[in-house]
Amino acid sequence: MATSVLTQPAAKGGSFLLESPAPQDVFTPADLTDDQKLIGQTAEEFVVKEVLPLVKDLEAKKTGLMPELVKKAAELGLMSGGTPEEYGGAGLVKVATTVLTEKISVYGGFAVTHGAHAGIGTLPIVYFGSEEQKKKYLPKLASGEMIGAYALSEPQAGSDAQNSLTRAELNPEGTHYLLNGQKMWITNGGFADLFIIFAKVEGEKLTAFIVERSFPGCKPGNEEHKMGIHGSSTTPIFLENCRVPRENVLHEIGRGHIVAFNVLNSGRFTLGASCVGGSKHVLMSASKYSKERKAFGKPIGEFGLMKEKLAEMAVQIFAVESMIYRSAGSMEAAMHAAAGSGNKTQNTMKILEEYAIESSIAKVYGSEMLDFVVDEAVQMFGGYGFHEDYPVCRAYRDSRINRIFEGTNEINRMLIIQMLMKRAMSGQLALIPAAMKLADEILAGPSFEETPEGVLAEEVRVIANAKKMFLQVAGGAVQKFREKLAEEQELIAALANMVMEIYGMESSLLRAQKSADARGEASASVLIDAARVFIADAAERVDHEAKRAIAAVHKGDMLLTQLAVLKRFGKRPVVDTIALRRRIAAAVEAQDRYPFEGR
Ligand SMILES: Cc1cc2nc3c(=O)[nH]c(=O)nc-3n(C[C@H](O)[C@H](O)[C@H](O)COP(=O)(O)OP(=O)(O)OC[C@H]3O[C@@H](n4cnc5c(N)ncnc54)[C@H](O)[C@@H]3O)c2cc1C
After folding, report:
1. Contact at 8 Å (CB) between 207 and 189?
2. d(CA 177, CA 67)
3. Ligand 1 pocket mutation pick from 270, 408, 417, 492 by most atoms within 8 angstroms of CB
4. Ligand 1 pocket check: which of 405, 412, 417 to mutate, most ligand atoms within 8 Å of Cβ?
5. 153 CA to middle of ligand 1, Å?
6. Which of 18, 41, 367, 582 is 20 to 30 A off residue 497, Cα-Cα?
7. Does residue 138 contact residue 146 with C-beta atoms inside 8 Å?
8. Which residues contact 328 (CB under 8 A, 6 or more apart)?
């Protein structure tokens, strides 16, 4: 089961914009139990020992090889993290599945195969399946006897998934639905035995179906020629009067969007965790290479600009890892609190929706962090980074897809704000009273602020002010555009960027403070350095986003007044991030790996 020791109540989704939790109230990688670490270790060892030696054949799509590896991983319980034990799964809770996903994501091709099978291919049945469907399919998916896939996208319907043209008509006998249409870009399509396929009943009711590959009329097409993740399979699925038994309707007719979007919420969070795992391995390779490669008579790792890259990779991984484990902890606490009461499916849906903002943040920030890390790693490898013989070259190509699937990063940025607004309007999140209180504070003018004390005290104030900036800008935007705000996409993206930076800053801060509380400031010093660097740079980015957003909202004298307020909130000391990054780089180089593992 591998549950975590979570004593605190679950923080509500999105509440990080309003509340300032104490360090002991957030989950961090240092809180992982030995069981959870063991799960991670098993997953990582499996990929390093069983998968990586076969990469050449996997990239060439050697027939049968990936399904064989899926089966082997399934025997170790690695392909069924989220499947309950009663259906043959590993029955892991959120933190443990997060570790599993992170650690299994060393190689992009396998990570994507794993996500499509264990995540979006299996979880729809776990969350929405009837008892019969669960009993029939979950044990086979858990053991790898069947490989799963999720088929929502179509040639004309990706982001706009509800524009599906695939149709499902009940046959005259009322025994089967006949599915007609085409699905596109289906991960695991080349070998999956079971597809969660979405189609419209009576032309308008989007519905999810469990479709076996062997059903007549289910015809997977040829492999797509992709930029990266060559180890994974991606094919179209053609549906020609595909006969699906009526009992294979998943959840309810016309409720396919509920299945699709909730599963994607979960998939987005998992994708963020996967990006953390991938990035740590790239950092390891870059650090090792920086010692081997010599230029101007010395290892390139001795140059300040190479050290800066290693340090920045570590800092960004640290921030994303801090956000992801904090969110996983909140989700697990919420699941724990809901256990045993009410309908399980409904509870799960509520929790997935509750943390939809955090899940989109994990996806967007995680994928952009990984893209940054692989890009800088290629740069450190110089010309060799551009050569297929070197794994960073593949990692660079493999990374790019993460910003596109599971909802593009543009769509997810908009979702972050849409969901925040929805929660604010329904009163679930007290954003409106907070914005009104802030307006009073602004009118009252600057107040005396006490000199902060304690570990990262200045940063605490920086983050509190960043939250005020968000409230100020978002409040102005809502007042000006009201229900038309959705049309102001650039403004929404600026607000979403502020939200993400705030979550990253605060999660990094709380983790460093928690570590200092537990082990003393001296032994947490590099963690504190990482938090300071991230917060210093993120605060600049918040400033930038706030200014460009506020310029789109206010004009003339009002704009000048608002800018003056922003300036007040943006006051902060200058941090010597060059010196701090040198220390962080030294920590990376000392171990040739990400230095904050499990801390
Ligand atoms: C390798 C790979 C594997 C995949 N695996 C799966 C899978 O297993 N199952 C599955 O169902 N799908 C899968 N997909 C599909 C993937 O989810 C879609 O590609 C993705 O959702 C984007 O849709 P699209 O390609 O149609 O792009 P489009 O929706 O056409 O988007 C094109 C651009 O327009 C932007 N855009 C679109 N709408 C808006 C808007 N409202 N506002 C602002 N910008 C907008 C997008 O952000 C993007 O930049 C996979 C794709 C790939 C490439």
Report:
1. no
2. 29
3. 408
4. 405
5. 8
6. 582
7. no
8. 27, 94, 95, 98, 269, 273
CA distances from 402 to 12, 56, 367 (A): 27, 22, 5
- Checking if the pLDDT of 5 tops 70, the result is no
pLDDT at site 485 = 96
Which is nearest to 410 in space by CA: 364, 357, 368, 369? 364
Q: How confident is the model at residue 565 (pLDDT cuts 50, 70, 90)?
A: very high
Categorize the per-residue pLDDT at 342 as very low, low, confident or very high, splitting at 50, 70 and 90. confident
What is the chain's mean pLDDT, rounded? 96
pLDDT of the residue at 1: 44
Model confidence pLDDT, tens digit, residues 266-303 = 999 999 999 999 999 999 999 999 999 999 999 999 99
Q: Residue written as tokens 């989007």? A: 206
Handedness of CA 500, 501, 507, 510 (dihedral sign): negative
* Tally of CA atoms within 13 A in the half-sphere of 356 that contains its CB: 26
Lowest mean pLDDT among 293-307, 404-418, 446-460, 461-475: 446-460
With cut-offs at 50, 70 and 90, classify the pLDDT of residue 2: very low
CA atoms of 596 and 599, how far apart (whole Å): 5
**Hey, CA dihedral for 263, 409, 52, 36, is it positive or negative?**
negative
Residue nearest to atom 26 of ligand 1 (CA): 158
DSSP string, 387-433: STTSHHHHHHHHHGGGGTSSS-HHHHHHHHHHHHHHHHHTTSSTHHH
Active site residues: 406
d(CA 95, CA 330): 9
Q: In this structure, are strands 294-295 and 298-299 parallel, antiparallel, or unpaired?
A: antiparallel
* Gap from CA of 533 to ligand 1 centroid (Å): 34
Considering only CA atoms, which of 520, 488, 508, 496 is closest in space to residue 580?
508
Of 74, 250, 231, 76, nearest in space to 150 by CA: 250
> How far apart are the CA of 234 and the centre of ligand 1, in A?
14
The Cα 66–Cα 336 span in angstroms is 35
For residue 155, count other CB atoms closer than 10 A to its CB: 12
Helix axes 525-553, 577-591, angle to 10 degrees: 130
Q: What is the separation of C-alpha 354 from the centre of its chain, rounded to a whole number of angstroms?
A: 15
Cα three-residue angle 266-270-275, rounded to 5 degrees = 150
